[in-house]
TrEMBL record:
This is Fructose-bisphosphate aldolase. The keyword Lyase applies. Belongs to the class I fructose-bisphosphate aldolase family. Keywords: Glycolysis, Lyase. It catalyses: beta-D-fructose 1,6-bisphosphate = D-glyceraldehyde 3-phosphate + dihydroxyacetone phosphate.
């Protein structure tokens, strides 16, 4: 393992106020999003859509890295350029989702575990040869009555740590993603408690598995009230709760915290990230960045709708969301940025 190279890649992933574009939806997830917009659910449309994303003009002004899916890392533009080459030429670091999605955790009603450790060493080697420089693994934690259990938290954290160690062995920076889901009526306080427990367990396991903290990126949820909670806290309360939680749990050696959006609206995700940077940027040891899928892609995907005539307008929307989040990293995002292009 080349530690220096891992550290350099991890810092490059959060440099210059840029963030990550998560475009690693598995085929079933991609189809779910296409179905909502009546976009045909075929390989051709998936390829067309991913081409639209990677060829968005100016994307590299706000995006440092893109997370690809196994199918996408092997695909090419219509004129035959591999997507990975398009990204590399734009100075965007290519990465790859390596988990194989979630399945019910045996013996734990309502809880999930992530699959994909079997054969991972060989897959990582292949992805590194294809040009990937970082990897991603997502664990899912559900809040409900009497869940999450310590057993579920430990199993998921252990897998994240084993995956992270294997990634570093292959020279890939691991994005460690423990996602506490927003679904449900739980309060911000409850999300805080669960996120704190989760992160404590994750960092204990990362340490036990000898993961180099300087050569990884954390991809967590923000601390937010559940989507069905009657009390929807202010942007500032979310920023305060999130940073309090991370200061107590995330070691200073980690170069960056790159949030997932998790089903928040695009504007709210940008506004909350902005609030964190306005108040805390110069008082926390890690970059406060983004690794959004839905909060970058959703408006543009809607504009595209599967119609090639809309590619340019859709790319403008992708660029706009990427720029809004770049501004949020600088603490310069404002509601006016939204109306300027409306
Ligand atoms: P969202 O930003 O849509 O939550 O997706 C991020 C991600 O990569 C989930 O694994």
């Amino acid at each position: 393992m080349n530690q220096q190279q891992l550290i350099e890649t991890a810092y490059a992933m959060v440099a210059d106020d840029k963030g990550l574009l998560a475009m690693d939806e598995s085929t079933p997830t991609c189809h779910k999003r296409f179905a909502k917009l009546n976009i045909p659910q075929t390989e051709e449309f998936r390829r067309d859509y991913r081409e639209l994303l990677v060829t968005t003009p100016g994307l590299n002004e706000a995006i440092s890295g893109a997370i690809l899916f196994d199918e996408t890392i092997r695909q090419q533009t219509k004129n035959g350029t591999p997507f990975i080459k398009v990204l590399q030429e734009a100075g965007i670091i290519p990465g790859i989702k390596v988990d194989k999605s979630t399945t019910p955790l045996a013996g734990f009603q309502g809880e999930k575990i992530t699959q994909g450790l079997d054969g991972l060493r060989e897959r990582l080697e292949e992805y590194a040869q294809l040009g990937a420089r970082f990897a991603k693994w997502r664990a899912v934690i559900t809040i409900g009555e009497a869940i999450p259990t310590p057993g579920c938290l430990e199993a998921n954290a252990h897998l994240l740590a084993r995956y992270a160690a294997l990634s570093q062995e292959a020279g890939l920076v691991p994005i460690v993603e423990p996602e506490v889901l927003m679904d449900g009526p739980h309060t911000l306080r409850r999300c805080y408690e669960v996120t704190e427990q989760t992160l404590r367990m994750v960092f204990a396991q990362l340490s036990a598995q000898r993961v180099l903290l300087e050569g990884m990126i954390l991809k967590p949820n923000m601390v937010v009230p559940g989507l069905d909670c009657p009390t929807q806290n202010s942007i500032e309360e979310v920023a305060d709760a999130t940073i309090t939680c991370f200061r107590r749990t995330v070691p200073a050696a980690v170069p960056g915290v790159a949030f997932l959006s998790g089903g928040q609206s695009s504007e709210l995700a940008s506004a909350r990230l902005n609030a964190m940077n306005v108040k805390y940027k110069s008082h926390v040891p890690w970059a406060l960045s983004f690794s959004f899928a839905r909060a970058i892609q959703q408006p543009g995907m809607g504009i595209w709708g599967g119609d090639s005539a809309n590619v340019e307008a859709a790319q403008e929307a992708m660029y706009h969301r990427a720029r809004c989040n770049w501004a949020a990293r600088r603490g310069e995002y404002s509601a006016e940025m939204e109306s300027a292009t409306a």
